[in-house]
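Supplementary Note 3. Input sequence used for the single-chain structure prediction.
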Amino acid sequence: MFPLCRRIAFLAAVLLLCSQSFAQDYFKQANELYDQGKFKEAVKVYRAAIREGQYEPFSWFNLGNALVQLGKNNLALVAYKRTVELMPNFTRAWTLQGDIYYLAGDCGLAITMYGRAIELGEDNDHIHYALGESYLKMRDFALAQRHFERTLYLNPDRMDAWFGLAETYERLGDYEMAIKTLRKAMDETALAGADVHFTLSYYYSKLDSTKKSTVEMENGLLMDPENVQARRYLAQVYLKTDAPWMAVFTLQEGFRYKKDVDVLHVDLGQIYFDQKRYDEALEEFMTAWKLGNSQGRVGAENVGNIWYNAGDEQQADAVYKRILEKN
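The predicted structure, written as discrete structure tokens, is reproduced below.
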């Protein structure tokens, strides 16, 4: 028979091992719940693991991740802070704190958290892009440029970073460098799409290069023909350059894609109205009106008013009747 003191010591050791095993089971169970997408249940079990005092930094960290999934970012922030208190070199926890502050619009604290992660050895495109955006919002264009460039060095396929770098130059009023940046993007990544051409069109318009602006908008529409906003903008550019037939053609081409056709009919009606082609304008406006666009009715009424003011009450009454009957 063991002496009493030895039996007590043995029992204490057994209890300690059991408690450790129990905490390990909590942690494992919580991870399994998390992997199954059962985040609410996982939160409870991670808290149980924390109470057991085992795997604390990782339990706090995973608890933070589960809370983020539940949209409870403020509580997740507390969990991440506790994580770095227990494990100061855990760079992922610093990064995720930065993400929460960044999403909340607190650029200063986001920069601090991301900066700590970088000090600890992190060097990835996610952190540098977020820093670039944060410095851009704070109007520190030199640091914004530096971090966007680092992002692109690490991952040249990040189109958001190319746009961020171009915007940095735009904010400085250097549209030529903004243009060079996006043209370089087209050379270095296959992910450059229609938005690059649309943005280039805007930059060229700021430099009063109407022809180049038009070409870029045309190129963008070739890649994204369903972009109604770009199509309408291009039609306006044609009107300003005395090419109304091209404006009409551009808008009519949009009917093929059956997207926002009521708006296109209104635009066509306005072009015909300005050209004093009132019968054609009326048909376009009425089509838009029948599709539910109230601007179509306004345009049709303007046609009626034109006839009325010209002294042709019979023609005006016919227009007003069509509007009332919506046919």
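The CA atoms of residues 62 and 294 lie 53 Å apart. Residues 1-23 have pLDDT under 50 and may be disordered.
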